[in-house]
């Protein structure tokens, strides 16, 4: 890989990174997208099922729903930016530019807007239950043909490069060789942290690289304790797969091993309660009765969700008897602290998508707002980043990455990270458990540091990043003694948000 230079360097190829690249290219900047993914499904966007929410000319109600789902912890200014730009961004990029074929009511009717948990209206655009891939592939193809955009796949970012308080690019690795890539501005869009947990809806490459690199570079992070778990993930047979919240929006019911529908006893909105409530209820009923299934008999599952039906068939699951489900890690609500344009606390460094903490989600994310946040913040960050000035290329020579720890050492570290995160930093947490988690992750980090001589291999970098982020999540959770949203402290009474005018 030759040393190079670009106006804007985007790290990651999900909807946030692609939107940032589009925003910058539209402003005339040269853009390089570096992604460690080699196939579309390497990015979390490809895995997204439910859809993308829009305001449908009711922005105030959409804002209220986002804030209510967050247990009143969202940043109102950030929520306003998201909602006010939602419809225009979706129309501009997804409909007019990419011509995404969102589902309609048939016979030329308007879009078939769906509803998911904690939404008070039908406002979710979707393509069956596999919206992400129907957005992601056309977006990649569009930018691959763009004259101002270069996409470098199978290329991992190992570290951010700094000069004083400014980020000047990143150290990129491809095929075992690492070198500096100098940029006027750098946009981190590396996705989530699913690989830190035993079960996740994320691709296994979601090792928290961007958050970890930002931490090591000195950028501020916030709200890391707010890790959202999706309540309905099928892990019974074959590969784990998410069963979209849209299925419950169409009338599917959760039942325990005794056949009892249990959600009405946990929340007045039953199956459409906020995700954190449903996830903990599913976990508790699973522990007490041995199984939880999603009963899809109230709807025509096969015709309404043909993609999910195919997933069930491929994994040997018979939906007619109920789809066995458990909670699994789904989304990091916090991350690298950014403003409403995606600017971090370091000069010339931006962050967008799941790795960024915009303030929109607070303690709990409303369904189908992640693709929207990536789109809106990506476009805004790309436009702002296009104004950056490019410094001279780094004079460093290309280097071979070191072998680092043996595969056995790395595998052991991964097992320890996942075991401690699953046990102590999951749906239900305690002060003692979080202290144990932090101590264990500090030990893992020390063992890795003792065996690492930079520049490290990609595999070693990923494990190192996972440990860095896992430790910061545990520390943030231990410091937060509020039991709220998806940060649930079983040793602290859960908070109930005060009623607002919107609740009356």
Radius of gyration: 22 Å
Distance between the termini: 61 Å
Report mean pLDDT, rounded to a whole number.
90
**How many H/I helices?**
14
Give the low-pLDDT segments: 498-504
Number of strands: 19
Instruction: Tell me the fraction of residues in β-strands, as a range.
Output: 15-25%
Please state the structural category: alpha/beta
Shape: globular
Helical content (DSSP H or I, runs of 4+): 25-40%
Largest sheet: 8 strands, mixed
Which helices and strands occur, and which strands form pairs?
Blueprint: E1 4-11, H1 15-26, E2 31-34, H2 44-47, E3 52-53, H3 59-69, H4 76-97, E4 124-125, H5 131-144, E5 149-152, E6 156-163, E7 166-174, E8 177-188, H6 209-217, E9 221-222, E10 227-234, E11 241-242, H7 245-249, E12 253-256, H8 275-289, E13 292-295, H9 301-304, H10 306-314, E14 323-324, E15 326-332, E16 335-337, E17 349-351, E18 356-357, H11 370-385, E19 399-400, H12 407-424, H13 431-451, H14 458-479
Parallel strand pairs: 1-2, 1-8, 2-5, 8-17, 16-18
Antiparallel strand pairs: 3-4, 6-7, 7-8, 8-19, 9-16, 10-11, 10-15, 12-13, 13-14
Helix pairs in contact: 1-5, 1-11, 3-4, 4-11, 6-14, 12-13, 12-14, 13-14
């Amino acid at each position: 890989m030759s040393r190079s230079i670009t106006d804007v360097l985007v790290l990651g190829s999900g909807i946030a990174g692609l939107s940032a690249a589009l925003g910058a290219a539209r402003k005339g900047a040269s853009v390089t997208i570096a992604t460690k993914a080699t196939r579309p499904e390497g990015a979390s966007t490809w895995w997204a099922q439910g859809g993308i929410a829009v305001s449908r000319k009711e922005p105030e109600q959409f804002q209220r729903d986002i804030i209510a789902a967050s247990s009143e912890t969202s940043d109102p200014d950030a929520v306003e930016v998201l909602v006010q730009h939602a419809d225009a961004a979706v129309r501009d990029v997804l409909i007019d530019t990419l011509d995404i074929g969102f589902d309609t009511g048939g016979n030329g009717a308007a879009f078939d807007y769906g509803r998911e948990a904690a939404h008070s209206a039908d406002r979710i655009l979707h393509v069956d239950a596999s919206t992400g891939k129907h957005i992601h592939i056309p977006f990649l193809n569009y930018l691959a043909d763009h004259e101002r955009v270069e996409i470098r796949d199978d290329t991992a970012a190992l570290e951010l490069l700094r000069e004083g308080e400014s980020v000047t690019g990143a150290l990129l690795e491809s095929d075992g060789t690492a070198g500096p890539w100098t940029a006027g501005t750098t946009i981190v869009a590396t996705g989530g942290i699913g690989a830190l947990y035993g079960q996740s809806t994320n691709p296994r490459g979601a090792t928290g690289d961007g958050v970890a690199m930002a931490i090591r570079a000195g950028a501020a992070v916030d709200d890391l304790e707010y890790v959202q778990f999706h309540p309905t993930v099928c892990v019974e047979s074959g590969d784990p797969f998410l069963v979209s919240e849209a299925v419950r929006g169409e009338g599917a019911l959760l039942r325990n091993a005794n056949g009892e529908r249990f959600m009405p006893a946990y929340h007045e909105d039953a199956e459409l309660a906020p995700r954190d409530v449903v996830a903990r209820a599913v976990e508790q009923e699973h522990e007490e009765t041995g199984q939880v299934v999603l009963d899809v008999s109230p709807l025509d599952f096969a015709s309404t969700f043909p993609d999910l039906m195919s997933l069930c068939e491929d994994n040997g699951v018979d939906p007619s008897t109920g789809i066995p489900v458990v909670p699994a890690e789904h989304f990091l609500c916090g991350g690298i602290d950014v403003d409403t344009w995606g600017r971090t606390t370091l000069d010339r460094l931006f962050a967008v998508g799941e790795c960024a903490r915009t303030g929109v989600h607070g303690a709990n994310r409303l369904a189908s707002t992640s693709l929207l946040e990536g789109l809106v913040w990506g476009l805004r960050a790309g436009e702002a980043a296009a104004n950056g000035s490019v410094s001279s290329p780094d004079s460093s020579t290309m280097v071979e990455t070191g072998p680092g720890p043996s595969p056995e050492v790395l595998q052991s570290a991964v097992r320890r990270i996942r075991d401690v995160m699953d046990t102590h930093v999951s749906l239900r947490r305690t002060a003692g458990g979080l202290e144990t988690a932090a101590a264990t992750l500090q030990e893992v980090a020390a063992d890795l540091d003792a065996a690492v001589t930079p520049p490290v291999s990609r595999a070693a970098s990923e494990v190192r990043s996972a440990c860095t982020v896992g430790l910061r999540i545990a520390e943030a959770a231990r410091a937060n003694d509020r039991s709220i949203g998806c940060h649930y402290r079983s040793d602290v009474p859960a908070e109930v948000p005060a009623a607002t005018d919107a609740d009356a």
